[in-house]
Each structure stands twice: as structure tokens, then as C-alpha cells.
Amino acid sequence: MNFDKQSNISGFLAEGFNKKKNFKVFTPSHNAGVSSMQKLAKIQCMGRKPWNEIKNVNAWMMSAETATFMKWGGLGMVASELPESFNEVFGSEHNRISIVTPLYTGNTGKKSASFDGSVYCGAEGIKIELKKILATRIMFIPQDNKITKYETDFYLGTFNNVDYIFIANDHFFSINPHPDNPSTQDGCYVLNEHDVNEVERFAFFSKAVYVLLKHCCVNKNLQYLIPNVLIANDWHSGALAGLCKYNTIMEACNHTLNEQIARRIQNIPIVHIAHHLGYQGWDYPNTARLLNSLYEHNALCVLKNAKAVKNANPRATNTLIVYDCYNQASGSFHLADRVVTVSKNYMEEVSKELSFGFDFRDILKIRKNQRTFFGIVNGYDKHLISPNPEKIAHLNNYFQEFNFKVYDENSLNNKLNNKKECIRLLSKIATDEKYKQQVIPLIDIYQFDNIAKLAASADKIPFICATSRLVEQKGYDIAADAIMKIIEEHKETKQEFPIFVLGGAGNIELYKLLQKLKNDVKEICPKAAERIFVFRGYRDEFAYALQLAADFYLMPSRFEPCGLTQMEAMAKGCLPIAMSTGGLVDTIDDNVNGFKTEVFFSDGIRVYGSNLQAQSLKNNVNAYAETLLKALHCYYDDHELIKQMTINAMKKDFSWTVSDGSVYKYYNLFTTGTI
User: Fold this and answer.
1) pLDDT tens string 192-232
2) Is 370 in a helix, a strand, or coil?
3) What phi, psi does 14 have (nearest 5°)?
4) 3-state helix/strand/coil string of 381-405
5) pLDDT at 608
6) 3-state SS, residue 539
7) Helix (H, G, I), strand (E, B) or coil at 673
8) How far, in Å, CA of 339 to CA of 642, rounded?
9) pLDDT at position 495
10) Per-residue CA distances from 125 to 186, 391, 397 (Å)
11) Residues near 141 by Cβ (< 8 Å), separated by ≥ 6?
């Protein structure tokens, strides 16, 4: 069957409908189903639907990424660690979270995954034995606009006491890249060999989960899987809320879904976890095709009645599109029973500031006021990030000629040893091209200098690093400007200029900016420039060694919804010097286990700090330079304070399961609807 581009008699949306700015919606209706759709967003956002108390949690967590099988960022860490921790703590009381995720296969060059029919080897090299539980066909419309039913298989396996439901479909979940795939996109975000982009891939993922839910309700062999909570991990599964809340109404009205089953799916509470609101799943050219693929013959009716909760933003009057563009996150923000973001302070930012909340600021403000929006800091298993014998042994084996040592808050002398070793490592990389190619072959370095002689006085020299991605968010330009500001002061003192090691994978322009920093410092103070190391690329062992050595970690972030790097640094006694934004505010105690700016601006507007401080500091560069200088003065003048702060940082435990840890807040949310 061909999707008719001109006609919507069938209930499909006409291609290009969103180009018509006078597209009519929200006509009053006497039809009970249509009327309920128009009211639904308001009911959901304002929490007017009572939360049915759940005694035993049986949740599905839908996630495009998992740290176990397809790791790309923080949301993948949450997808693996939250279920593992939850099942560990509450499993004996018959509470459980299972993970639903795509079964990716293929090779991007950096990530590869394979499946032989019984054993799946994910992109992180971990294997799991799987059993097929369902084979079905799912309708979706590809780019040629021919309605197609795709063979889709569902598999079940268990890893680390977590049940995984994998969805297998080669067309959507192949990660073999298309020739036109941008070099910046990798892993599960590639434009794949079948010309499927990330938004289409995860729209299909949401629909596949919806189809599985319906099968579980009618298939006696699958009924044990039926969840009583659905956890949508970021925008990737954002389309699920519209399918569960809207499409069930339409299918029941059209008698294509049993009314009892429709009501059962509608009543499963959906908890949407929002990581960074800048990522929403936009796709303007494919707006009609994606909505038709998701809602099929109901697409026109659903869209016409997908009325948003009243808010001040004329762009967000419809729950499924923002202005005239398909937006996958929008459905969850409007229709989920609860929305969670990954720190309390980021919740405040996105519900107050347009630069953080974007088109959803007003909706999230309503949700916060009505207690359907919460901030819960991401957990992080401390054992994974603190210095431990296994990782240190691996490091020494990898770098061969160096002797890094295990340390904790009670043995900081070993941290000084690691600082000396890292100074020697940087110097070895600077002087031995063959060794450099052996240990960090894919990392570009810029004019590394031999500073081996500084190892003897390492206790007097601040060592400062940053190994985050080279992207605008991380504020490397702010750090560069701040470093230039402290150069003049250091010219007038006899204090040792710090060692700076700055870089990561990402933007070539930011790498050039860091190169310029070194060149500019060289013109002013050549000896200081020798201590600035700039690189582009990433190697886990290299980043780990730097944090083992460093006294401070730079985090001049423009935004940081939660942040994991500051947790990693603190666990190694590397004190963060951070901008006061997002989760950095919630996880760093100023002058106790790190340093934070006294003020923070976004788009020139004060977001954090007092008006008086804002008037004095004027911008983020000044604020960050002041904080960097404060940290350095503490290092030079108050060794005991820095030692105590280092001990405090290493004692800090962000693990999910610590007393009053995040896993308990999620348990309260799932069972009662509040934290």
C-alpha cells in the first residue's frame, strides 16, 4: 500500500501538512474519546490523575543506550546502573526493573556488535545468551513512502541480575554507517546503511515497545512480563507516551484494540527521565512520515486533538510537534505521569530559564509547581571510579615503564607519586614518537614539552587537567580566557606556574583554540607555556592517569544537567573547579570538596549567585578566573586546607545505594508518585 502524499482520507497526515501555518486543531468534539485526548496533557502535567499505589514494582526501562551493551554517555550509565542497584536493594521484596533496548548489530569503526541467534555480543564486548520470546511484524513508512511491515524479533536474557528485553530489526538497528554519515555521529546515533537516522530509529523503538505491550496483554505466555511502571530514558523513547495515552484511545474507539486492554496500557504510569533538554529528537522533513508511522490511520485525528497544557509559548500548543516540527521528547514532557531530571538544580534551571528549558520551560514550571516534576541526582558506583588495584595494575601494564600506585584518603603520598609518574609520562610522550604512537595512537598532541625535571618539585606545582569532550558545552574557551587572566598575576610572583593538561575528543575548532592558548602564553611567558599540554582525542587509560595525578579538574561548563566527570575526579582526590550550573551545584560543596563560581550567567542573564556578585564579576570568564585563582592561592598558601578538601572529596560517595541515595528516591517515586 502506498501512502498517499496528497490525500488524508485514510486518516494519514498529508506530506507537507506542517508547511501550512493555518493547520487547524482542537475543534470541540462531542466524541468522548476525542474530548479526553484534548484534556489529557493538562490532566497529566497537573497531576490530576491519582497515582495508584504500587506494592511491588515491575518496571520496564526503555533506553537506546546502556553502559553494558551500547555506551555513549551518561544516560547509558543510568540505564545500566539504576536497574542493577534497584534490583540489588529491592529485589528480595519482589521489586524489579528490566531493561528494554535495541539489539544493535554492525560496525561503525569505533563500535561493533554481533548476534549469532543465541549469543549477543554488544558494542562494549559483553556477551549475553538470549531466548526469542516473540516474532511479529511492525508497520512503519520508510523514505519511499510505501507502507511496510518489518519483521521484528524480541529476545530475553539476564545480565548482572537484570532482565534485558532486546528488540531486533536490522533495518532500524544496524549500526553499519551510511557513506554520508557525519563523522561526529557514531554508535547508536549513526545514519545507517539503510539511510535510517537517529530520530527515525528511536521512533521505531518506541513503537516496537508499544507493540510488545499489546502482545503481552493478549499472549498468556508473555503476561508475566507486563510492567506496572514504564521508565522512558530521555527523548529516544519519548514517542511511547503518545502511543500509550492517545493511540489506545483511538484504537479502542475504532475497535482495533480491546477496550479493557487499552485501559490497562493507558493506566501504566510513565516516568520520563530527561537528561539534557537540548537533545529532543527533531525531524522537520519527516514530520508527517514519522507521525503516520507511529499512529497509522489515527495520525490525523490524534494530531488534531493533541492539545498541550496551557502555557505562554505559542510554539508548544501541540503535544506531538513543536511549532511545525516533529519533536520526540515533546510527547513525554506533556503526557508522562511524572518527569524526572538528573539533578535538583537542573530542575530549577529548566523550569525558570529559556536557555535551559527551551520550548518546554513553561510546561516544566507547571509540572514543578504541581509536583509532577522532580530532580534526582544520578548515582555513580564508587568502585567503578575510585582508584583500585585492578585498574592501577592495568594502567601500569598498559604504560609499561611507569609505576602508578593505589591510594585512598588515608594514603595521599601515593597520589603524589602518581603526579610525578604522570609528569614523566607526559615527557615521555613528548620526546618519544614511537612510544606516543604505542600508547595514545589516535590522540593528536600539540607541542608537548619535556618537563621531566619538574617531577622533583611536584609537591609545589599545581597539576590541573580537563579531559571532557571538546564541545561548546564544556566551556574550554572560558577556561582558556581564565588561564590568560592568571598569566599576568603569575608573572609578578615567584609561585610555580601550574601544569595544565587540556583536551578530549571532539571539535577541531576548540582544539585550535587550545593551541592558540599555548601560543599566546608562550609570547607572554615561555616557561609557563612549557607546562601547557593540549591534545585532541580520547583514551581511557590516558584520562584515568591524568585524574590520578591531578590536584584540580577544570569544569567551566555552560550547562551540566548532572555531570559525572566531577564525581570521577572527586573519587580520585582531584578537586573540581566548577561553574555553578546544573548538577555541579548539587554535588560539589564549595571550599569543602571542590570549588564553585560565586555567580553563573546564561545568555548574559544571572542564573546563580547574588545581584551584587553578578554586578561585580559581569560574566562567566571573570567568575571562573576568580575561582581558579582562589583554588591556586589555597594550593600555594594553605596546604592543610587542600589536603583536607582532597580527603573530603575522596570520602564523598555518590553510589546509588548509599543511605538516602538516589535509588531510594526512585523507589518512592515508582510506588507513590512522589519523592
Assistant:
1) 999 999 999 999 999 999 999 999 999 999 999 999 999 99
2) coil
3) -70, 140
4) CHHHHCCCHHHHHHHHHHHCCCCCC
5) 96
6) coil
7) coil
8) 39
9) 87
10) 16, 18, 20
11) 3, 147, 148, 289, 292, 293
Task: Determine the Cα–Cα distance for residues 25 and 251; give it in Å rounded to an integer.
Answer: 20
Are 271 and 373 within 8 A, CB to CB?
A: no
Distances (CA, A) of 88 to 56, 81, 674: 14, 10, 22
Percent of the chain with pLDDT over 70: 98
- pTM for this one? 0.93
Cβ–Cβ under 8 Å, residues 235 and 280:
yes
Question: In a 3-state reduction of DSSP, which class is residue 344?
Answer: helix
What is the DSSP pairing of strand 127-129 with strand 119-121?
A: antiparallel
Say which amino acid occupies 130: L
Taking a C-beta distance cutoff of 8 angstroms, is the pair 252, 262 a contact?
yes
Q: What is the Cα–Cα distance from 622 to 602, expressed in whole angstroms?
A: 14
Tell me how far apart the alpha carbons of residues 506 and 512 are, in angstroms, rounded to a whole number: 11
Q: How many CB atoms lie within 10 A of CB 437?
A: 12
d(CA 636, CA 630): 10
C-alpha cell of residue 634: 589555597
Query: Is residue 6 over pLDDT 60?
Result: no
Between the two ends of the chain, the Cα-to-Cα distance in Å is 49
Q: What are the phi and psi torsion angles at 636 (to 5°)?
A: -75, -35
Which residues lie across from 230 on neighbouring strands?
Answer: 60, 270
- Can you state the angle between helices 540-549 and 413-431, rounded to 10 degrees? 130
| β 106-107/112-115 pair status | antiparallel
Please state the rounded mean pLDDT for residues 97-118. 97
Looking at residue 489, what is its pLDDT? 76
Cα–Cα distance for residue pair 617/629, rounded to 1 Å: 14
Query: CB–CB of 587/377 below 8 Å?
Result: yes
d(CA 67, CA 123) in angstroms, rounded, equals 9
Tell me the chain's radius of gyration from C-alpha atoms. Answer: 26
Taking CA atoms, 283 is separated from 182, 232, 322, 365, in Å, by 16, 20, 10, 26
Judge whether residue 22 has pLDDT over 70: no
Residue at 139: amino acid letter: M
Cell readout for 311 is 502555557
CB atoms within 10 A of CB 86: 26
| pLDDT for 3 beyond 60 | no
Q: Which among 485, 495, 416, 425 has a CA at the least distance from the CA of 456?
A: 416
pLDDT exceeds cutoff 50 at 8: no
Of 457, 556, 543, 552, give the one whose Cα is nearest residue 514: 556
Helix residue spans in 463-507 (DSSP H) = 476-491
**Tens digit of each residue's pLDDT (9 = 90 or more) over 598-637:** 999 999 999 999 999 999 999 999 999 999 999 999 999 9
- What 3-state class would DSSP assign to 330? helix
- Identify whether the C-beta of residue 341 lies closer than 8 Å to the C-beta of residue 561: yes
Give pLDDT, residue 9.
Answer: 40
Distance CA 513, CA 656 (A): 38
